[in-house]
UniProtKB/TrEMBL annotation:
Protein name as annotated: NADH dehydrogenase subunit E
Similarity comment: family membership: Belongs to the complex I 24 kDa subunit family.
Pfam families per the UniProt record, alphabetical: 2Fe-2S_thioredx (PF01257)
Lineage start: Bacteria, Pseudomonadati, Aquificota, Aquificia, Aquificales
Note accompanying the cofactor annotation: Binds 1 [2Fe-2S] cluster.
Length: 154
């Protein structure tokens, strides 16, 4: 079961909607914010809270790449790999991140601080190539600027 603080947050989301299942995305975000990822063990208690079958909740988590089901990191760097960003410099962005952080996509830095997560369109195509650090969105403007941005996250 969930810790009281998280349970209060989930109940708040569930009570907001006319039908419990409508709160599923907000609840998954709350779980991810709490743990840094969506632990597998959290899915059954969430399904029970929402009165949904477990496999429904599992499918939702699997469908959205904004939910991280594996090793957590303090900061998730989501890199858009969709078509516009692909053609406007996604590869350079990934290379710069890999060089700076010394990790590959899907990996976490040894201090647990950063994780590179390739995702589909982040909805900011006019700024391509785009990446996000947790909830902050940035346009990739070269390695130097990237390092400056990353240094803000301590
Ligand atoms: S294609 Fe990258 S943000 Fe849309």
């Amino acid at each position: 079961m969930f810790e009281q603080e998280l349970l209060d947050k989930l109940s708040q989301h569930i009570n907001y909607f006319p039908r419990k299942e409508q709160a599923i995305l907000l609840c998954l975000h709350a779980i991810q914010d709490h743990y840094g990822y969506v632990p597998r063990e959290s899915l059954r208690p969430l399904a029970e809270l929402l009165d949904l079958p477990l496999n429904h909740v599992e499918q939702v988590v699997a469908f959205y790449d904004m939910f991280d089901r594996e090793t957590p990191a303090k900061y998730r760097i989501r890199v858009c790999v969709s078509v516009v960003c692909h053609f406007l410099g996604k590869q350079e962005l990934l290379k710069a991140l890999e060089k700076t952080l010394k990790i590959k996509p899907g990996e976490v830095t040894p201090d647990g601080k950063f994780k590179i997560v390739p995702v589909q369109c982040l909805g900011a195509c006019s700024e391509a190539p785009v990446f996000m650090v947790n909830e902050d969105t940035y346009k990739f403007e070269g390695e130097e600027k990237l390092n400056e941005i990353l240094s803000r996250y301590t």
